[in-house]
Amino acid sequence: MKKYILSIFLFLGGIALHSQTQVGSDFQVDYNNVREYTLVNVYVHGCHIVDSNVVRLISGLPIGDKITIPGDKTGDAISNVWKEGMFDDVQLQVFKVDGDYIWLDLVVTEKPMIMKYKFVNVKKSEDEDLRNELHIGHTLLTDFRAQFIKNTVNEHFQADGYRNCTTTLDTVYTDATKQTLTLNIVVHKGKKVKIADIFIDGNVKYSDGKIRRMMKDTKRKRIYQVFKSSKFIDENYDKDKLAIIAKYHKKGYRDARITWDTTYNVSTNRMVVKMTIDEGGIYYFGNITWNGNTKYSSDKLGQVLGIKAGDVYNEDALETRLYMNPQGNDVSSLYMDDGYLFFQVNPVETNVHGDSIDYEMRIYEGKQATIRKVYVTGNTKTNDRVVMREIKTKPGQLFRRSDLIRSQRELASLGYFDPERIQINPKPDPYTGTVDIEYVVVEKPSDQVELSGGWGAGRVVGTLGVSFNNFSTKNFWDASQWRPLPSGDGQKLSIRAQSNGYWFQSYNASFTEPWLGGKKPNSLSFTFYHSVQSNGLKFSDPNRTYVKISGVSVGYGIRLKRPDDYFTLYFEGNYQYYDLHNFYSVFAFSDGYSNNINGRVMLSRNSTDQIIYPRNGSNIKLSFEGTIPYSLMTGKDYSTLTQQQLYKYVEYFKWKFTSSWFTRIVGNLVLNTRIGFGYLGMYNSARGLSPFERFYLGGSGLTGFALDGREIIALRGYNDQSLTSQKTGAPIIAKYTFELRYPVSLNPSATVFGLAFAEAGNTWSTFKGFNPFDVYRSAGVGVRVYLPMFGLLGLDWGYRFDNVPLEPNMQRSQVHFTIGMDLGEL
After folding, report:
1. C-alpha–C-alpha distance, residues 807 and 127, integer Å
2. What is the pLDDT of residue 542?
3. Which pTM value belongs to this model?
4. What are phi and psi of 605, to 5 degrees?
């Protein structure tokens, strides 16, 4: 203020001094006689950082207009510039006077500029975080910026529990003019302040402990409080108070409120939170009437709403059943699934009598909307037709919200796009009764590369595999489409090779066309594979023993429309040829060959909302696999046949049922419940049960070569395959799994989620001994990491609850590493 008053006097004095020294000017200031001039121009001097034109505009001096000397406009000009806070000194002087014309000069002294700045008493990581928040290099150190720096730094550390943090600024000028400086930001964090206790008064409906549990981010300091911090953050505290009131509202306490709350320190690092709650009385829904509905009767709308007079008042439930029920059975969905895009319903309280509240549901139905255009954006790799064929909304159809939800699910299930960033933007036109629908997608990496090496049995084991999940055979011969491979048509190509020299070699390739012919979602797939396992001797060595397995399969899938279009019927034909040369311990015979010709039929229903981290839906499969019943057609006496003759053509049939359900508990916390059963049967008891295609249970589900078609099923917490005879396997299996999952990161480049599991399972040799409740049990925790280039990787720690008679020395807990989407197929 002193500088401001001084500047006014300097301005008046400057007029006299400057005017008297101008060559040819006889201008004299007469303070008793105000004189009017035309302002020709305003010059600005002293600006180095601030734009002179900006200062001229801020001054408000009207160039070209009449001003009086002395007068209000000149005083206001100094005031306007001064209030910006960017200058240490502001002067207004007369530059020139010529008759009735005048030129003025604004002379300013800028605040010093921050050339460098550093933090004192902070860690390197904290330094980096603060710099990302401030961005103050080469800016003027105004009073506002100084306060901004202090507030930002204090709030940063207060959010981490340092509630007593204070910040001071130390300036060191770097030149004699004091126009540049180095700023030292000195931080005094103090001690972290934890919440010693939370006291609650006035609560009757809920206990103190229950209310404290409602506060998700404001917790007391307790030894058992491991996963939640007890630091106090104002923003989180405000959210938790709202959560408490919301909980009361859900139970009918509409008038509940927090009438008083406070916080205070009880020591340098401990504080207390106190609050008083006025619960009020419990309310109920009264009469509910409907107005404006012509499409559906009031009785029908009342059935969908599902709220009747006498029900406990719950505003959240009312809104959910009117607008946004996740299951889709709300009033809004009823209309919008029949094209009424412009539908609106407004619940109005018409009467509050005693503890009951009457409502009138005022409806505006509008007219049905027809889809005009449907288009997709963001698909930089995937062709439009591949995206559009999965979309359920078509031009000319009535608008249906359920079609939007289903389309989003189908796009997420493709695996080509980030499911968390798929957007659907309806663009309605009420005047024409039409709507355009834009689908916005973000491509994510979907191809996978497997390149690994290891050392085992004195040999280097190498694996090389590639999976192209969005391949295009159509563009295979177009060199311009190789980036690095032709892509965009949604086809899948997989090639994999594994070898450790003479001991083991395996090669396989597969191809899938998901839309055969391009018009219907009927898939066609081919698979070829060949593997060799030996005793490690050279090919030319006469003592070399080996088993060679070659096979091919062809599959055809049909998406059904009944009972709904989540169902798929899949047919597959397989042929495997086994060639053994003195190869013992795995097969029922050691020398000779065997043929496995089988067919498989699978009926499945998959309604999960996405692939990597499903939150809701289910995946249910029922399959039958079987060979031709040779023994029922030949009439041979199998008791006289050799093992080679007995298994020249493998004979069996197999039933499998698997079910996986995903239930969202709250937010992104998901419960995955899985049940699986398998049964391997025989056509002819005289021939006996096939040694091929049996079940092996226990461990991670990764150990061993599936040379005889065996299925290796995981059960964490136990040794690999320890719950089944490793020599013969088992024909009957049952397994149950419960997994509670929570995501750490849903970034498509690295999806990470933790899990806690409990599972149980067992195998049986006969139906007579089958008991689905006689199982081996385990529990534990784990983590899953999905990397687009490598697929899903997992690490689990499992603890077993039961002893295994055949392995009395098995350790009580196990750590398992897993690869792939499922731990086994059950």
Report:
1. 56
2. 87
3. 0.69
4. -135, 115
